[in-house]
Amino acid sequence: xxxxxxxxxxxxxxxxxxxxxxxxxxxxxxxxxxxxxxxxxxxxxxxxxxxxxxxxxxxxxxxxxxxxxxxxxxxxxxxxxxxxxxxxxxxxxxxxxxxxxxxxxxxxxxxxxxxxxxxxxxxxxxxxxxxxxxxxxxxxxxxxxxxxxxxxxxxxxxxxxxxxxxxxxxxxxxxxxxxxxxxxxxxxxxxxxxxxxxxxxxxxxxxxxxxxxxxxxxxxxxxxxxxxxxxxxxxxxxxxxxxxxxxxxxxxxxxxxxxxxxxxxxxxxxxxxxxxxxxxxxxxxxxxxxxxxx
Amino acid sequence: xxxxxxxxxxxxxxxxxxxxxxxxxxxxxxxxxxxxxxxxxxxxxxxxxxxxxxxxxxxxxxxxxxxxxxxxxxxxxxxxxxxxxxxxxxxxxxxxxxxxxxxxxxxxxxxxxxxxxxxxxxxxxxxxxxxxxxxxxxxxxxxxxxxxxxxxxxxxxxxxxxxxxxxxxxxxxxxxxxxxxxxxxxxxxxxxxxxxxxxxxxxxxxxxxxxxxxxxxxxxxxxxxxxxxxxxxxxxxxxxxxxxxxxxxxxxxxxxxxxxxxxxxxxxxxxxxxxxxxxxxxxxxxxxxxxxxxxxxxxxxxxxxxxxxxxxxxxxxxxxxxxxxxxxxxxxxxxxxxxxxxxxxxxxxxxxxxxxxxxxxxxxxxxxxxxxxxxxxxxxxxxxxxx
Amino acid sequence: xxxxxxxxxxxxxxxxxxxxxxxxxxxxxxxxxxxxxxxxxxxxxxxxxxxxxxxxxxxxxxxxxxxxxxxxxxxxxxxxxxxxxxxxxxxxxxxx
Lengths: 294, 387, 96
What we know:
The structure holds 3 protein chains of 3 kinds. By secondary structure, chain A is an alpha/beta fold. Chain A has helices spanning 22-34, 46-51, 71-84, 98-103, 106-115, 165-170, 185-196, 211-214, 221-230, 256-261, 271-291, and strands at 38-43, 52-54, 56-57, 62-66, 91-97, 120-125, 176-181, 202-207, 237-240, 243-246. Chain A has one domain: Rossmann fold (3-Layer(aba) Sandwich), CATH 3.40.50.970. In chain A, the strands form 2 sheets. Chain A has an 8-stranded mixed beta sheet, with helices on both faces. In chain A, 60% of the residues are buried. By secondary structure, chain B is of the alpha/beta class. The model of chain B has no long low-confidence stretch (mean pLDDT 97). Chain C has helices at 51-55, 80-84, and strands at 4-5, 21-23, 26-27, 37-41, 61-64, 67-70, 90-94. In chain C, a hairpin with a 2-residue loop joins strand 5 and strand 6. Chain C is elongated and about 55 Å long. Chains in contact: A-B, A-C, B-C. The interface between A and B is large, with 46 and 41 residues.
């Protein structure tokens, strides 16, 4: 899919997300692919906070806020309810952030995948609890400074690596899962489109930078979302029919140091810290290139 | 109608079946589990057409039911005790969103200490969650509540979720002969669920939104009004029920020989039968005793209660509940209703049955004696060695 | 189809719905006040490649007659469009 193939309709519009918000771009374009028959569920978090303040209601399609933990379980209920009432032409789609997905919502998500409910779950990952003011989530990467993982003399930001949600979800033998980045929009759109055509549970994990939380200029959201892929700290992949496929295999990575130093959340990192990040990237890619289809 | 010998849980499942819920979200917990087991069998054998969802937690059970209700489907779930507390976040969510979900709760003690037996601390702790709360006395009433609850909850003037409570084990696992109405009559009683409070492709909605301080207050006020409206709709539902099925119910509360009573015991749930029996025994000995059984705690039978007890010399409230550091919550509600109506008579609180402790004939005789002769404000019955 | 500004902006007691359910895409306020800088399209350079439209987080850019058109009511002035444009057809100018 390219921009030309997208619906001219705007389904997420007039919202109060920060300027340059990556999450809102992911939601906007995914809905343009899914279309007017989307039943969107958004848990408590950035996108619900900026999109649903009565009487300013920013979704043109059917949309509802769920409890923080309840994205997947509410999707299940919506899908079952519509089916019970005889509806056939609709897509139940969830948009949850990294905390809502990898932390508080992981149990309900696991349950939905276990039942193979016919839903699409999109995690827009901005790598911390941004709505409450940049606290560490299970998807905050190693070394990142957040308001609950400060950097000081003793501890240099987050001490744990990012939870591997893509493979956790895939380990359920899910019908379809994929990673994406808003920096590679066509790839993301194609994956959303593909997911809409598959029955069962679908999961797309899209990197969606937050300028406020990452400490970058608001105009750099898309650029940094490309760079995280180009430097190898994120990858574009799919899981389907029991197999992992790498969609994009960079011949040469761009600099990790350059990527990190553009963001104030990483600016405190020492050379040793950066070496840990590079080593873990290389170890991951060694496995990817060895085990996944390319 | 067919007569069957069923446990309270099984009877309730039969009532749910008659209500034709379109989505059932199920998670096991003792002593509720039999309800969802029976429903799963009905779905399997084709006697009930419903989407049966095996959720992975009670939080998801109610969240799923909310999702189903948000697209206009009739939804059912059931829980108990720890499960009710685990889903607690979703309770005001369902009522604030005005989703008329019906949930059965098997009243059970809450940990710690762990205990699977019946008391009412689980549901009473959620009294402020905005749900209608009813308490059945026997399996037949449970079955009838299952059907009637949907009529009341889904009524456009109410549009509020409904929790039906059955005492754990004492009611959920005790067998009785119950009348099961025919599906034809059940359909006549309960029309399909129709609402505008739903996501709809033809008429898209944004739902379960935020509302700032000005608007929020109005939403809350309207939610309160809806619960008060339920009083009228409960009467309407019971009349309709009696017309169709021939069984009569008495609204928010049920009185027993209260007209000329000097001493009245107010209680709720399955213990009421024993209380009536003791009241009869005492009447035979010349005491004027009666019983009020609260069928609903929300909406609370404020006026009905005052009417029932205003000529009594003293009242007692027997409940399987305690609000630690104060008194039983039912007692607080009763006193407030009486005081506001300027019906100031001595009232005593009797806390019993916590963790399933048996309440005996002697206990109830003793309670009536204490109501007559005076007692402490709060009395834990059957405790020895306490103050 | 898209959410749009409505005439009725104030909601009193009787306008408040009984449930938390309301017409989708109901807008009562714009976002133009957020900007300190604004994108301006150079119509001579713009070829309507749609990249700015594709990457605008606010959906505030449409392509009309093969040119980018910005909805200044809802543009927040983030400048992603200017960065993304390979033809340098968008410039950020100070709001005054």
